[in-house]
Specification:
Blueprint lengths: L1 H10 L11 H47 L15 H23 L20 H9 L3 H19 L3 H9 L3 H9 L4 H28 L2 H15 L8 H26 L7 H6 L3
């Protein structure tokens, strides 16, 4: 009853001078108007938020679809049907898994680094002149022992990359996949290097240090660097672990890159039906 009475007087505001109402009725009218305005604003905000979320979700789906549409259609050679986004990403992940597994398996074997002329870890380039002098002075075995120990440490460290590589490959996103598809012959390897290098460096440091100690590399390096520093004004960096880690990672990603190139270019390297599908284009 009171509400109907109040509504009547508020309606009368359009036909009567506002000041003709009593102060109490003016207050009630303004209060009702304010509450109604707040409810309208809140309702509009809720609907706007729902619409905004729907737009964002739709935009995300369109963005992902357009990323792949811009690349052109990859066709399944066996059935002549376009490959799905899921198949393409799965194929890229498998290529990286195969490349990483082949590389780490080969490099972690005895002589994996030491007998590979492209990857063998040698003394730092700046030591070449002194190393030659040391060999002429009958210290060749000291140099050779230090080189062998560094390569053994690298071979030992590479065997511990599995979990870090697997995690990075598992987390590959749609956007990562598009970047790899648009990239060159080493694009997948570049992705893996960016995602894992820092983690591998941290993982390798205690492993390489322990491996160097296990094969007496620290002793050989200490003996070598002491002899080197006596003969050279420019002192040798004593952080053998950091040097070996850097060279180990360079060799590892170089090897993974070669495996990726083989999968892209050599049908015989596509060892599964999925790799044949994705890389047959």
């Amino acid at each position: 009853m009171f509400s109907s009475w109040l509504s009547y007087f508020c309606w009368a505001h359009d036909h009567l001078t506002y000041r003709t109402l009593s102060p109490h009725l003016q207050f009630l009218c303004m209060k009702k108007l304010l509450v109604s305005s707040i409810l309208i604003v809140l309702a509009f905000g809720a609907f706007a938020q729902i619409d905004l979320n729907q737009i964002r979700n739709k935009t995300t789906r369109i963005k992902k679809d357009s990323l792949f549409n811009n690349l052109g259609t990859l066709i399944d050679p066996a059935f002549g049907k376009p490959l799905t986004q899921e198949e393409i990403i799965a194929g890229l992940k498998e290529a990286l898994n195969v490349g990483a597994k082949n590389s780490t398996g080969r490099l972690s074997a005895v002589d994996g680094f030491f007998k590979d002329e492209a990857l063998k870890i040698l003394m730092p380039q700046e030591t070449e002149k002194i190393v030659n002098n040391m060999r002429q002075l009958g210290m060749g075995k000291l140099v050779d022992d230090a080189i062998l120990s560094m390569n053994r440490a690298a071979e030992d460290a590479v065997s511990n990359t599995g979990a870090i590589f697997t995690d990075a490959i598992r987390k590959m996103s749609i956007e990562d996949g598009v970047g790899i598809l648009r990239g060159g012959d080493h694009a997948a390897t570049d992705y893996l290097q960016v995602k894992t290098k820092d983690s591998l460096t941290r993982k390798f440091r205690p492993l390489v240090a322990a491996s160097l100690a296990k094969v007496n590399a620290t002793k050989y390096w200490k003996d070598f660097s002491s002899a080197y520093n006596r003969l050279s004004a420019k002192k040798l960096n004593p952080d053998l672990t950091a040097y070996v880690i850097e060279r180990t990672l360079n060799g590892l990603f170089y090897s993974v890159g070669l495996e990726e190139t083989k999968i892209r270019k050599d049908p015989a390297a596509r060892v599964s039906a999925l790799l044949k599908k994705v890389f047959a284009q």
